[in-house]
Design brief:
Radius of gyration: 16 Å
Largest sheet: 6 strands, parallel
Order of helices and strands: HEEEHEHEHEHEHEHEEH
Helix content: 25-40%
Structural class: alpha/beta
Distance between the termini: 21 Å
Shape: globular
Number of helices: 8
C-alpha cells in the first residue's frame, strides 16, 4: 500500500547530522536514522539524484529521491558526506555564503559550527553538490527589491566562486516565498528553487518533505504515504 501512495520525486529536507541533545529546534538527525531513511528508499528501488541531476533529467520520474541539506553545518563534512559516500549516494547542500565560518543561530557547541569556505570547497570536492540558500538566511518576503536581488544574486555568484561551476538551484530560507520572490529567483538565473512541505511540482516552487529528525524508516514511510503530518 505504501509503495502505491509514494509520489515522485521524493525530495527530503534535512539540516545537520549529529546527536539530538541540546537541539530544541530539531535541526539534527542522528546518523543511524539518516542511514535508515536512505536504506528504506534504496530497498524500494529508488534512484538518488542531486538537485541539478534532477533538472537535467527533465520531468521528475518515478522512484526518484533527492537528499537536500540546509544551512551550512560543518558536520556535513565530518559526518554526512562520509555516510553518503559509504551508501553510494550524493546529496545537495545549501549554504549561505555570508555565514560561512560562523555558528548556527539555534545551536551551541560543536554541533552549531558552520562550514568555512575551505571546508565548503572540500565538501564539493568530495563529490557533493552545493547550492544557494541566500547570502544570510533572511525571510525573503520581507526584503525590499535591492536587498532581495543581493541575497539571491550574490549568493549564487559566491557559490559559483567556491565550486567553479554554475549554481543552478536555490533553497528558500524557511521554505518561504511569494510571487515577488519567485520572480526575483527567476531573474537571478535559478532554474530550480525549493520551498517546504508537499505540493504541486513547479520548478521555482518545488516542494520538499521535511524528513523526521527523531525517527527512522517507519516514520518516513508514513510521511511519504501521507499518514503523518508533513512537518512532523
Amino acid at each position: 500500500m505504501i509503495d502505491r501512495l509514494l509520489r515522485p520525486p521524493v525530495v527530503l529536507a534535512y539540516h545537520g547530522v549529529g546527536p539530538p541533545q541540546a537541539d530544541p529546534a530539531r535541526l539534527l538527525i542522528e546518523p543511524d536514522l539518516l542511514e535508515s531513511h536512505i536504506r528504506f528508499l534504496q530497498g524500494r528501488g529508488y534512484r538518488f539524484l542531486t538537485a541539478e541531476e534532477l533538472l537535467d533529467e527533465g520531468p521528475p520520474g518515478p522512484r526518484t529521491a533527492v537528499l537536500t541539506f540546509d544551512d551550512g553545518f560543518r558536520n556535513w563534512l565530518t559526518v554526512t558526506a562520509p555516510l553518503l559516500r559509504r551508501l553510494g549516494v550524493r546529496g545537495t547542500f545549501y549554504v549561505c555564503p555570508e555565514l560561512l565560518g560562523g555558528r548556527h543561530w539555534h545551536l551551541d557547541g560543536e554541533e552549531g559550527r558552520l562550514l568555512d569556505e575551505s571546508e565548503a570547497r572540500e565538501l564539493f570536492e568530495a563529490g557533493m553538490e552545493l547550492g544557494s540558500h541566500t547570502l544570510s538566511h533572511p525571510d525573503l518576503r520581507l526584503l525590499d527589491g535591492g536587498e532581495l536581488s543581493r541575497e539571491l544574486e550574490e549568493s549564487k555568484s559566491e557559490v559559483e566562486r567556491l565550486t567553479g561551476r554554475p549554481c543552478r538551484t536555490l533553497a528558500y530560507p524557511y521554505g518561504l516565498y511569494d510571487e515577488r520572490v519567485v520572480s526575483a529567483a527567476r531573474a537571478a538565473g535559478y532554474e530550480l528553487a525549493f520551498a517546504w512541505l508537499p505540493g504541486p511540482w513547479r520548478p521555482l516552487e518545488a516542494p520538499r518533505l521535511p524528513a523526521p529528525p527523531r525517527n527512522g524508516a517507519r516514520r518516513l514511510a508514513l510521511k511519504l504515504a501521507g499518514l503523518r503530518r508533513p512537518g512532523r
